[in-house]
Write a structure and sequence with these properties.
The chain is globular. The protein starts with 7 loop residues before the first strand and ends with a helix. Helix content is 58%, strand content 9%. It has a three-stranded parallel sheet with strand order 1-2-3, with helices on one face. It has helices at residues 15-26, 40-58, 78-85, 90-108, 116-128, 135-153; strands spanning 8-11, 31-35, 69-73. α1 crosses α2 (40-58) and α3 (78-85) packs across α4 (90-108). It has one domain (8-153). By secondary structure, the protein is mostly helical.
Length: 156
């Protein structure tokens, strides 16, 4: 197993990025989060604060702390970042090397439109499934399963 050297970057601090940042902090690492939205830092810190009690119950690594988070508003958009990542060849070089595998993944997808009808079906499916279940009890059961899995897999 390799050890992590230096901070972990989280690019984008929406639902997935915020969860990744919180979990990484709980594992005792420094996190540098990047997001172009000027209001993202406040939302990210609030999401981490909200998740911290559950992460604490699951067990924190040594040095785990939300204070190990630093936040930077991204100065460049994704296309400019891709251009810079291509070195002297710029975006053309990036697309030459990363374009074909990205296209393969896109070819596997079929177009999906989030129509009002599809949104209604998604909401109805989620609403119908746990209709007779106590939401806090479901959350507690999930947390217990995570604790059990963590103990079984000896996750950090």
């Amino acid at each position: 197993m390799t050890s992590v050297q230096g901070p972990i970057a989280v690019v984008g601090t929406g639902a997935i990025g915020a969860g990744r940042a919180a979990l990484t902090l709980a594992h005792g690492h420094d996190v540098r989060a990047y997001d172009p939205d000027p209001e993202a830092e406040g939302r990210l810190r609030a999401q981490i604060d909200a998740a911290w009690p559950a992460l604490t119950r699951l067990g924190l690594a040594d040095r785990a702390s939300p204070r190990r988070l630093t936040f930077t508003t991204a100065l460049l958009g994704p296309i400019v970042n891709q251009h810079l990542s291509g070195g002297p060849g710029g975006l053309a070089h990036t697309l030459e090397h990363l374009g074909p595998p990205a296209q393969e993944r896109m070819d596997d997808l079929r177009p999906v439109r989030l129509t009002p009808e599809l949104a209604a079906r998604l909401v109805a499916g989620v609403d119908d499934e746990p209709a007779d279940v106590d939401q806090p009890a479901m959350n507690a059961q999930r947390d217990e399963l995570l604790r059990t899995r963590r103990a079984h897999d000896q996750l950090p």
